Each structure stands twice: as structure tokens, then as C-alpha cells.
Amino acid sequence: MFDFASFLPRAVMQGIPLLYGSTGEILTEKSGNLNLG
Question: pTM for this structure?
């Protein structure tokens, strides 16, 4: 049976790198530098 209690911490741990990347991109765009590459 699928155990949601074990899925949630894994999903958070795997999502943290995406969160770092998107936060860095938002800060870069707010500073005026647009990276399209």
C-alpha cells in the first residue's frame, strides 16, 4: 500500500534543488539581469 507519510519527506527533499534554482532565477531577474541562455 502506498504510504503517504513516507512519500511527503522524500518529495520535499527532491524538490529543494528546484526551489534553490527558481529562487536564484527570481533574484537574478529582479536585479535586472535577464538570462535567456
Answer: 0.54
